[in-house]
Amino acid sequence: MNNGRYQSLDPNSYIIYDIRNFSTATFFGETMFDSLSVKPYRTKEEYVYETLRAAIMAGNLRPGDKLVIDSLKVELDVSTIPIRTALQRLEGQGLVNIRPHTGAVVSNISLHDVAEIFTLLEALESIAFGAASQKITPPSLTKIEAIVKQMDDAVKAEDSDKWASLNSEFHIMVAHVAGMPLLKEFTARVLGRWDRIYSLYLREYVLSRMADAQEDHHQMIQLLKIQDADGLSELAKQHNHRALEAFRAYTAADQSENS
Predict the structure, then answer these.
(1) Which terminus of the chain has fewer Cβ atoms in its 10 Å neighbourhood, N or C?
(2) Residue 199 and residue 250: Cα distance in Å, rounded?
(3) Are residues 240 and 147 in the same domain?
(4) CATH number for the domain that contains residue 220
(5) For the segment 10-32, what is each residue's pLDDT rounded down to a tens digit?
């Protein structure tokens, strides 16, 4: 391709610059990407999908932003078909709305969406911890403990971005140990929605909640060690219930300050 964004290594493989770490772009074409890394993608559709998803999750493409196919064709140097396919995948994940005769826009986020995410996580994590408690092995427990230790370090450093990333890793690891692939997939998808909301709106909220959440995570480890399935399931429910109540209190206080 003429812009050097990617090069073909073989008929089924591409090296494409990944935009996950860019920080100043407000929309494609308006600024240069700050930090480009190289990542292999097997198809152009995967490249477009991952690029757009990363921009949405990072908040560089914000709710309501239009995704104009003609503009994306120029910016990403691909044809229409991989863009349309990628947009359909993003719509399936709730990240994009495709409107007839209008085109695609980045989906909005409501307080109801946040409450739904906590409700889903409560159910998914309750199942995951209950199942994981019966399948936990010393190596798996060591990995989970290492993640929680890194989360402790993030709390001390007041690094909410690092903590939030590790929090998702922690819960996906538990779902993996549970040995239920669909549960792991659903957990990852819901946490992906949470990561997007966090990046857009909730850094201060997470910063205020990290220490309390860590107490639950340490208790979860202790219950995993003794394989207490009932205790873990109940703690997972309470963990998400407390998080939702704290979120509601946070948003109520924020609305009061801005009224």
Answers:
(1) C
(2) 16
(3) yes
(4) 1.20.120.530
(5) 333 333 333 333 333 333 444 32
- The model's pTM is 0.70
What is the torsional sign of CA 152, 157, 159, 160?
positive
DSSP-derived secondary structure for 11-72: TTEEEEEE-TT--S-SSTTTS--S--EEEEESSHHHHHHHHHHHHHHTTSS-TT-EE-HHHH
Helix, strand, coil shares of the chain, percent, nearest 5, are 65, 10, 25
1, part of any domain: no
**Final residue of a domain: which of 106, 122, 148?**
106
Let me know whether 151 and 197 are in one domain: yes
From the number of C-beta atoms within 10 Å of its C-beta (0-12, 13-18, 19+), residue 17 rates as: middle
At 39, give phi and psi (nearest 5°). Answer: -140, 140
Which residues of the chain carry a pLDDT beneath 70?
Answer: 1-40, 254-259
Look up the domain containing 15 and give its range.
6-106
The predicted-structure confidence for 197-211, as pLDDT tens digits, reads as follows 888 777 888 998 999
Do residues 93 and 118 both lie within one domain?
no
